[in-house]
User: Which sequence fits this backbone?
């Protein structure tokens, strides 16, 4: 279980980006985080995996308090936090298999990491996961020869190779075309169920959040405005989160809204 209590993140003397945020994610739930640019969505994920240092508050993953960890303890904790990035963050000159096995770097010694000599069990798990997401036939292909959707699948498998207790996805579909975006969201949804893995997705596309996640968390100016089921995410919730500011059509629905349809993708 991931439990966040009174999380605050402030840069210097500026207004806090996150303002006393409380959030709990458990089981195999798929939770989407929505909100306008600057709402604190990415900052929240980066605080969870300690890419950003929280100013105050508590972040606990399966009983381990993450906020004050340092050195070896922090590296060990990060092994249990999988991360899928908007920009893929692959090493283009390496093969798909080498990129996937990079998810095991926190578990192998320095010699194995430098020579990329991973245990056979890791290689077999990598093949199994790649087969599951449909990229096993690209195992020996360089990462820079793949399409965006294929690259994102590599990123998902790399994160799963960490055997994480929680999977974070920061705008995983933002760089993809609408059809591929749907496929990636369906993949994350099904993997959460299969692996009993909680997934927390930062996403602009409200329509996809309503379709592929079972819970929506809405942020506005670093404050939690909405936390509930997609069926309850109505126009009132939408306006409370976005303040009446309409987001670009393609960032919400992936296609222009029909005549008379609200630009956030809600009928």
Assistant:
């Amino acid at each position: 279980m991931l439990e966040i209590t009174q999380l605050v993140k402030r840069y210097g003397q500026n207004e806090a980006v996150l303002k006393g945020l409380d959030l709990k994610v458990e089981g195999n739930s798929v939770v989407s985080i929505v909100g306008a640019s600057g709402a604190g969505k990415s900052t929240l994920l980066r605080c969870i995996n300690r890419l950003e240092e929280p100013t105050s508050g508590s972040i606990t993953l399966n009983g381990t308090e993450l906020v004050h960890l340092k050195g070896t303890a922090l590296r060990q904790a990060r092994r249990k936090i999988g991360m899928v990035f908007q920009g893929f963050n692959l090493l283009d000159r390496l093969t798909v298999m080498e990129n996937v096995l990079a998810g095991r770097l926190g578990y192998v010694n320095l010699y194995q990491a430098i020579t990329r000599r991973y245990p056979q069990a890791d290689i077999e798990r990598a093949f199994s996961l790649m087969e599951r997401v449909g990229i096993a036939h690209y195992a020996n292909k360089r990462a820079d020869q793949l399409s965006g959707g294929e690259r994102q699948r590599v990123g998902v498998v790399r994160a799963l190779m960490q055997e994480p207790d929680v999977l974070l996805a920061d705008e995983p579909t933002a760089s993809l075309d609408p059809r591929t975006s749907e496929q990636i969201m369906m993949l994350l949804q099904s993997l959460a169920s299969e692996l009993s893995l909680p997934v927390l997705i930062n996403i602009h596309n409200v329509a996809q959040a309503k379709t592929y996640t079972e819970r929506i968390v809405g942020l506005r100016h670093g404050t939690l405005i909405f936390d509930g089921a997609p069926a309850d995410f109505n126009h009132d919730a939408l306006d409370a989160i976005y303040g009446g500011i309409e987001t670009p059509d393609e960032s919400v629905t992936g296609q222009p809204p029909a005549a008379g349809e609200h630009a956030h993708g809600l009928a």
